[in-house]
Amino acid sequence: MTTTSGSADSNDPIIGDPIIEAHDVGVKPAALGGDLLVVDDLHVSFRTPRGDVHAVRGLSFTLQRGRTLGIVGESGSGKSVTAKAVMGLLPKSGVTKTGTVRYDGADISDLSQEGFRKLWGTEMAMVFQDPMTSLNPVMKIGKQITESLQIKLGMDRADARETAIQLLNAVKIPAPEKRFSEYPGKLSGGMRQRVVIAMALACGPKLLFADEPTTALDVTVQAQILDLLAEQQRDRFMGMLLVTHDLGVVAGRADDIAVMYAGRVVEKAPARSLFHHLQHHYTAALLNSIPKVEYPSHTRLQAIGGRPPDMVHPPKGCSFAPRCGFATDLCVEVEPELVEHPANPGHYFACHHPVSTAVSLTATAMNGAI
Amino acid sequence: MAGSGTIHLRDESLIRVENLVVEFSVKGTKAKVKAVSNISFDIAEGETLGLVGESGCGKSTTGRAIMQLPRPTSGTVAFNGTVLTDLKGEALRAMRPQMQMIFQDPISSLNPRRTVHAIVGEPLKIWSKGSPAEQAAKVDEVLEAVGVDPRMARVRRPHEYSGGQCQRISIARAVVTDPKVIICDEPVSALDVSVQAQIPNLLEDMKQRYGLTLAFIAHDLAVVKNISDNVAVMYLGKMCEVGAPDEIYNTPAHPYTRALISSIPMPDPDVALDTSQRLVGELPSPLDPPSGCRFRTRCPLAQDICAQVEPQLTAVGKRHFVACHFPLITPVSIST
User: Within an 8 Å CB–CB cutoff, is residue A74 touching chain B?
Assistant: First the structure.
């Protein structure tokens, strides 16, 4: 499954069979992981008649092999733009991109279209939001999968067909031989998303982007698709970037979660720590806005008032301050830095008045600032 | 899922739907899509009925059938004692201002070329309700009520508003004719979680302010539970379970309801992902639904009888009914 590719050709010694063996005997993936994707200070802006829209403003994160990073945020927070920037899918004109993106040790920030072409499919692949529009309606399902197998991996038709049927089987599509020669129109939304996942997995990528993969689907189908993605990610030991607006979707499925607001990460932590020790009021607001089944009916829901800032003129201080109930003059004036929680290593947040003020260190830092 | 039967209907109700059947013919064949097959339900005045189920279960068709859009194949829909299914032409049209709809996609359900003020005022113009000045005042009032600035609405068009605001505008347009009933067809599905919460809150406010009765159609169970006084779970054109939301969610009686509830994503990493109740397989074709109980092909509890006999709705609680041969909680006698 693993194939070499131009610029991302890795000299990392830990790729190959030893990992798989180690994985099988239950060693934690992170231990053998190593960094697969390192994004450092990424800025993306789009030129518009109104001025530059600063969609992503100084984003940094690291994704290790075999781990899942959940990126959570509202529409317009820059989460999809981030995924597209890393994959080299941004339009050529009218876009300014700075910062570095390292994939598998190699710097791919300034890679050409041709360079990315070598990475797509074999190294990194993407599952898009809408399965209705991401498949070609006039091409048979089988052909859409075998195409990349033949072009990227140089398989002959018979091999490609066999592999495609195995893939359809792996994503749990019933009667894969029959589906192979049908058109996407015959399938339900959930089944189409399975086909899209099969296409993404076809050339054995090491990094999978799932951009709102279940937003267009029903709850029951959503659960199935998320299970499938998690299973494939585990079995193939891929790094996965799961982009969503729903904290409920990433809760049990991401190892780490980054919460984005107005083009920046406002909180970043291992999943458990994020939910148990959340620090940023935006994360708290997002969590509170989810209707809970445990609550009796007619419980008033806590919507987040206001709307995200205009990204042509992002606010000077904390971008969430205008909607935050705890904001002070300090928040309006000074942009908070992303700092590590003193008691929870690995838990970062950018807030002047974090939710748990019980931690003395942050409290003193706060007093000093005021 | 068979879900026929009328045991759960009450004496007093604003909307009463009995033995509703909606079928669509397929071009060039004799086959019929059995979208809704013999369901009954009622909505009391001032109540909210939540209709839940997967895509293709017939919940939207049911909502539209109440509006007579299109007319049901058979069965009756009564509104405030008037049998809508018997009305024709002008008599039916005269009922329309009392029943309004809100649709899933707030952007595409508003005309992009008109100002928001004109869009919301259109129903008043159509029904010639009051003078132009009175109409404008009424539009201002409802826009204010949904939290959209009426002055800006005179110059702005839908694309200048966010999805959540467009849904507010749709709600304003629905309440402007002072309707008694609003059918909300997946009003939050197209919105972000952070914005979604505004809509049920707003609908609750509107309900208080204008004395509305609602039918709320959605596949998101948590939202439905939050807003409803009564919940009806549908599967492939049939009713599985009807009852008070807290009862249905705490003690689901139908295996399908249980599966639906277990697939709600929990925003808590410590809640172990319970995949044991996951639904497997695909929704069968509504062209040729399974015999007996329609859920039997995916039901973990199915037995021979499920293929032969269609289960009828039976009481499992005071306001809790289920159509299942092997309900998860024991049926009770209705007199208790």
Answer: yes
Rg (CA), chain B: 21
Q: How confident is the model at residue A279 (pLDDT cuts 50, 70, 90)?
A: very high
Q: Which two tokens stand for residue A256?
A: 């780490």
Q: Note the pLDDT tens digit of each residue in B237-266.
A: 999 999 999 999 999 999 999 998 888 888
Predicted pLDDT at A62? 94
Compute the nearest-CA separation of A22 from chain B (Å): 25
Residues 105-134 of chain A with CB under 8 A from chain B are: none
Here the tokens at position B69 are 């859009």
- Give the type of residue at B200: P
Interchain CB distance below 8 Å, A220 and B200: no
User: Mean pLDDT across the stretch A93-120?
Assistant: 92
**Sign of the four-CA dihedral B96, B98, B101, B102:** positive
d(CA A365, CA A213): 40
Confidence check: pLDDT of A268 > 90: yes
Question: CB A189 to CB B55 under 8 A?
Answer: yes
A63 strand-pairing partners:
A37
Tell whether B291 lies on the interface with A, counting CB pairs under 8 A. no
> Do B228 and A297 lie within an 8 Å CB cutoff?
yes
Report the 10 Å Cβ neighbour count for A50: 9
Alpha carbon of A241: minimum distance to chain B alpha carbons (Å) = 17
Tens-place pLDDT, residues A170-190: 998 988 999 999 999 888 888
Contact between A303 and B283 using a beta-carbon 8 Å cutoff: no
Which chain B residues in 223-252 lie under 8 Å from chain A, judged by CB atoms?
223, 225-229, 245-246, 249
Work out the average pLDDT over A310-328: 91
* Residue to substitute from B52, B59, B189, B193, interface A, most A β-carbons within 10 A: B193
Give the count of Cβ contacts less than 8 A between chain A and B. 137
Does residue A186 sit in helix, strand or coil? helix
CB A140, CB A183: distance < 8 Å: yes
Whether the bond between B70 and the residue before it is cis, its omega within 30 degrees of 0, is yes
pLDDT tens-digit readout, A223-262: 889 999 999 999 999 999 999 998 988 988 899 999 999 9
Query: How far, in Å, CA of A107 to CA of B275, rounded?
Result: 40
Nearest CA in chain A to B191: A75
A251 contacts on B by Cβ (under 8 Å): 265-269, 271
Put simply, the answer to whether A246 touches B265 (Cβ < 8 Å) is yes
Residues of chain B with pLDDT under 70: 1-4, 272-274, 333-336
Say which residue the tokens 């439905």 belong to. Answer: B224
**Residue A16, pLDDT above cutoff 60:** no
- In the β-sheet with A264-270, what is the strand arrangement from edge to edge? A124-127, A207-211, A239-244, A68-72, A256-261, A264-270, A348-349, A339-340
Whether A23 and A238 have beta carbons less than 8 Å apart is answered as: no
- Measured between CA atoms, the residue of chain A closest to residue B197 is A303
Amino acid at A194: R
